Structures are given as C-alpha cells and as structure tokens.
C-alpha cells in the first residue's frame, strides 16, 4: 500500500462503477471505430477513450496521493464527456429522429399535444419558476453526493455515484436507440404563444442550449430519471432532505413538459427507467463489487 493511503481505504480491484465505465467505454470505442468515416474527429475521441481507460487502470493498480479523490469523483467528468459525445454519434449513426413518433403517441393518449394544451395555464411567473427548477437539475443531483462526501459516508457516496453514473449512461443508450430533439422544435409551428418569463428565463434557456448544444436527448427524460434517483438517494442523507426532494421532483417533471423540452412519453420512460434502477441497482452493485468495494476513507 502506498504511504499516502491509509489501511482499509480500498483494494486495488475495480469498483462497481469502474466496471460500468469500462463497459460503456468499450462500446463507445467500438462505435467510433465502426463509423470512423461518419463521426467527426473520430480519431481524437478514440484516443480520448484510450487515455481515460489507461488513467483509470493506472489509478486502480498504482495507488498514489490523488487516487482516493480521483476514484470517487472521476465519473462526474466521464459522464459529462459522454453526454457531449452523443451529439456526434447520433446524427452520424442514426440519421433520422423519432420526434414525430413520440408526438403521435402523446396525441393518441391525451387527444391533444400536451405542450400546446398547457398554453392555457402559461404565465410569466410560472414559466420563470419552472425554468429555475429545470436549470437546477444538475446541482440538485450533485448536492446529494456533496453532502454524503462531507459527512464521510463513503460507502453511501460510492453507491450513489454508481447509481447516478448507471442512470446517466443508460439514458444515453436510450437517446441513441430513440433519438429525438423535443417538442419545442417539432411542434413550434403549432404553439400559439412564445414562453415568457420575468427576469432570468431567457438567459437560463440560452445558457442551457449552449451547454447542451443540439442534442437528441429526449427519450428517455434524463431530467425525470435522474431527479427521481436523486430523490431516492437523498434518504441516505436525512429524512428532511428526502422530503425536500420529494417536493421538488414532481415540479421538475412537470417543468419538462410545460417548458416544451419533453414529450410526456419521454417522462414516462424516464420514470420507468428510474424505478427499474431503484429496484435492481442494489443487486447489480453487490455483484459487481465483489472483491472491489471500497470499505472506508481517510
């Protein structure tokens, strides 16, 4: 054991989250190679994947003073990078969008386009409030991790990191299988009014558009899925936080449709995926953690 690490910190075996990351990296690299001529800068992205894999293996097998922080937090940057890559993969490989199909499913169920129907309750204060809730999505998900880390609940932190990483990566697979841009693009010509906030609405919307670029990231609704997972994970922090997240979650879910980011079928898919992970992730985590689960911190 390296002198910078305290006994019992972890074994030099892969953790459950590492195995998920390595599997996803392998599939992504295979996709890049398979569509080499179709995906812009494919060589750069293959190199990035190989460097990322090599760095992870090095940190696992060669513990040093950066290993503890790296192994607990690297997945945050990895998941963010994978999201950005989807904007390259989907147009090159899938070529067609599923927006019309999703909109048709919505219409058949509701007898109307939900985003158009919701115009009747639209108001600047409501729009402003819902855009704030929608924009806070990532901080809300990360806040649980930060609190677990600060309280040195390392086992709980590592399970939460595994759950969130698995949730994000599975949603990316969904984006690839059912690529869609969202009703604010497909149904724009049917909307009678433009959403108007009060103070920061347009700034928040513009910032999110730049951050996310033009991505086919509707199905399933990652906002719905990950907020439900964050709500479920918040119970590891405190009952008070669990109740606060329970109040926030339905507001966020409603915002995804009201703000015209998602079809309701996206929301349903995100909720079903979240429920499936809540039920199955503990079993998956235990099986993948054999021989490699962290057992303490410094």
Please sum up the structure shown:
With 298 residues, the chain is an all-alpha fold. 69% of the residues lie in helices and 0% in strands. The radius of gyration is 20 Å and the shape is globular.
Number-wise, the strands total: 0
Radius of gyration: 20 Å
The amount of helix comes to: 55-70%
Whole-number average pLDDT?
Answer: 88
Low-confidence runs: 1-8
Roughly what fraction of the amino acids lie in strands? under 5%
- Tell me the span between the first and last alpha carbons: 14 Å
Q: How many DSSP H or I helices?
A: 13
Biggest β-sheet strands, sense, barrel:
none
**Helix/strand order, N-terminal first:** HHHHHHHHHHHHH
User: Which structural class fits the helix and strand makeup?
Assistant: mainly alpha
Which term fits the overall shape?
A: globular
The tally of domains stands at 1
What does the secondary structure layout of this molecule look like, with pairings?
Blueprint: H1 16-34, H2 42-61, H3 67-93, H4 99-110, H5 114-117, H6 124-135, H7 137-150, H8 154-177, H9 183-186, H10 201-212, H11 222-233, H12 239-258, H13 264-288
Helix pairs in contact: 1-2, 1-3, 1-8, 2-3, 3-8, 6-10, 6-12, 7-8, 7-11, 8-11, 8-13, 11-12, 11-13
